[in-house]
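<context>
A single protein, sequence plus fold
<entry> Chain with its tokenised backbone below
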Amino acid sequence: MGRGDGTGRIVSASDADDTGAGILHVDMDAFYASVEVLDDPSLRGKPIIVGAPDGRSVVSSASYEARRFGVRSAMPVGQALRLCPTAIVVLPHFDRYLELSAQVMRIFRDVTPLVEPLSIDEAFLDVRGVRRLWGPPGDIARALRARVADETGLRCSIGVAATKHVAKMASTISKPDGLLIVPAAETAAFLAPRPVRALWGVGPKASEALESRGIHTVADVLDSPREVLDRALGEAMGERIWHLARGIDPRVVDTQRVEKSIGHEETFHEDIADPVILRSELRRLADRVGARLRGGGWEASTIAIKVRFADFTTISRSQTLAEPTAVGQRIGDAAHELFASVDRRLPVRLIGVRAEKLEMAGSAPLALWDDDAEWRRIEDALDGAAAKFGRGAVTRATLLGKARGGGTVPSSPPPPKLDRG
């Protein structure tokens, strides 16, 4: 099984059998870090941490050179630098990541219309219907890797299999810069030796529950009675793992997949106890979330906040709105209400705002009157100013002044919208 640092990778031979393997999972390699190297070649081959230089912020991405020291995404930068003191910390450039992501997704759609973006840097492709145009799946994957490299300067890894689940596992094992093909007839043999934590959707708690019962590999899952899985994981997850271990995954490549949430969070340079400052930061984050919702053509029905205290205890609260919205003012009001319900016994290290249960803007029934009409006009004007002069050209007076954190970080950057015209 390949590891996050690229050791133990497995790739297919040039003449690998691809019979029955029509689903591709394409995953860009260390995407944020690779983009920074692309834009600054002097960084090539060096351990890179993408994040704020403040040791209290978190790692957005890391190059494979840094990962080999144990650096991982979402790790505090301070901890990452202790693991890899020679690492170079590079500020993230999310607009640039989105630009290159859009370019990569256009390349995917040139190959097949059946593209399902999972995030800013990965997608599923169903190529079973384009064999007459481009050849067998293995050839398509090889040509796709070459084209992405030629046109963007970036590398990707691709898993090719009969199902989405196995294709995703294969791409992970082949990283970085690899291709692994699992023909349909070899699915069971491919899965059997894999650790249970490699199964898509099995997180640390689920894997611990299985491993505590002596279930360490997919082969162990196959040998376990269904009731044992249900007791360890619950009936729903037990059923899912039972099927995935047998290579059963009926999910199709969904070109209409709706992004589940959009969020921003901020880690402060110093822990903050002042509720006035914290409410101001919530307003800043809410405005950023609202702008991203409007930019993507979404509205949210639920608003959530995340608060991490000085002792790293983390809590979240959420609220369902009476009507879906993309108005930053409304999102900020909801965030303030949620924050008021939090028992703040310690200063705050990190705070975040997230919009959930997204739907296309305008899809909800029209209300009799629009309480947010004035704010919509104001925020439309702000969007226009941002497009013309750059983000932050116009902002709230309460948000002026010295930054208190390492910059707002998208907690789940969405893939760019595909041009379906």
